[in-house]
Write a structure and sequence with these properties.
The complex is a heterodimer of chains A (about 240) and B (about 100).
Chain A lengths: L5 H16 L2 H11 L3 H11 L2 H12 L4 H12 L1 H13 L4 H8 L3 H8 L4 H33 L7 H17 L15 H21 L7 H16 L1
Helix pairs in contact in A: 1-9, 2-3, 2-4, 2-9, 2-10, 3-9, 4-5, 4-10, 5-12, 6-8, 8-9, 11-12
Chain B lengths: L2 H21 L8 H24 E2 L2 E2 L3 H15 L4 H17 L1
Antiparallel strand pairs in B: 1-2
Helix pairs in contact in B: 3-4
């Protein structure tokens, strides 16, 4: 990471942006399969622009959940972007209106690419290029996935029902891996203990959700699992 | 459910959460409880979502063989550190193939 040129940072950022943005196809398809229109699907990607939340919301819709449970799960998942913004604010040092543009681009990948740079100037380059590359690619592929899924018809026939849990698992895995980029905290510190704790939390939340599926309305198992974690955190 | 209300509320809420991080004092982040919570919350939510999406159908547990086959193949791909797009394509292809059998 030493003596990195701005050009190399741009290249890496655009590369990550295109690779990550491509899975907008999976979101577009899952969203239309859940019953949202192509327009609603695209509006979510353009305005909400945070993959985990978008998958969560359409996941609850497809399961027949209520507006409150879909929104609750989605916003809880989106709350991590608040933490990212707090980390990026002193790094990007944006004033006035540009802060409100930077806010929209504050997601997992742009944060990871920015905080990986020691030089604040390079961090800014990484943030903006990753944001723009993902934004363009994510929205284009969302539309492609939505239109494609609408043309295909029955989503189950094409295995789209397996795509959503697979997508969540792929989003979860980096947070469970020891020493992985995304599981690092702001100081770059990471420990095996932290990773083991994440595994315990994941197993506990999964179990709570499984038990509650037949007992509660759709959407509630996910929120209850999150609430249990809040509680476990307080007891410590 | 009115899907437009959900779409717009999600969009507005997500943007507000992002903007909030630029407006609150940075020292809030110094509290270890806050940091821990924001790190662990996505882990719990995503794990619960994996389970619900894999085996729930509304309020019922539904052990759909094809869906689980696709999910299982995707889990192996995740374990082998396949890229995101490969994981979801494997899930769809295996589930679709299993459904044909």
């Amino acid at each position: 990471m030493l003596e990195e040129s701005p050009r190399a940072v741009v290249r890496d950022s655009v590369g990550v942006g295109l690779a990550v943005g491509a899975y907008g196809v999976a979101f577009g398809a899952a969203s239309v399969a859940a019953g949202l229109s192509v327009l609603q699907t695209s509006v979510l990607s353009l305005l909400a622009f945070t993959g985990g939340t978008q998958f969560a919301v359409v996941g609850v819709v497809s399961g027949g959940g209520t507006l409150a449970t879909a929104l609750g799960g989605g916003l809880l998942l989106g709350a991590r972007n608040t933490l990212y913004a707090m980390r990026l604010a002193p790094l990007l040092r944006q004033r006035g209106l540009r802060r409100f543009v930077a806010a929209q681009g504050t997601i997992d990948e742009s944060t990871a690419m920015a905080v990986a740079r020691r030089d604040p100037a390079l961090a800014r380059v990484a943030f903006w290029w990753t944001f723009v590359a993902i934004y363009v690619c994510w929205n284009a592929t969302t539309l492609a996935g939505a239109v494609g899924a609408q043309a295909l018809g029955d989503p189950a026939k094409f295995g789209l029902d397996a795509v959503v849990p697979a997508a969540f698992l792929a989003l979860l895995a980096p947070r469970l891996r020891n020493g992985d980029e995304r599981s690092r905290d702001a100081n770059g510190a990471d420990t095996a203990a932290r990773s083991r704790e994440s595994l315990r939390i994941a197993a506990g939340a999964g179990l709570i959700a499984l038990v509650l599926i037949p007992l509660t309305p759709p959407g509630v198992p996910v929120l209850a699992a999150a609430a249990a974690v809040l509680l476990a955190g307080r007891l410590r | 459910m009115n899907l437009w209300v959900l779409v717009l509320a999600t969009a507005g809420g997500c943007y507000a959460l992002k903007v909030a991080g630029y407006l609150v004092p940075a020292r809030l982040l110094d509290a270890p409880q806050v940091r821990r919570l924001v790190e662990l919350l996505p882990v719990a939510l995503l794990a619960a979502l994996v389970v619900v999406e894999a085996v729930a159908s509304g309020r019922h547990l539904q052990w759909d063989a094809a869906r689980l086959a696709g999910f299982g193949a995707a889990a192996v791909a995740v374990w082998r550190r396949a890229p995101f797009l490969a994981v979801v394509v494997i899930a769809a292809v295996v589930a679709a193939a299993a459904r044909q059998i």
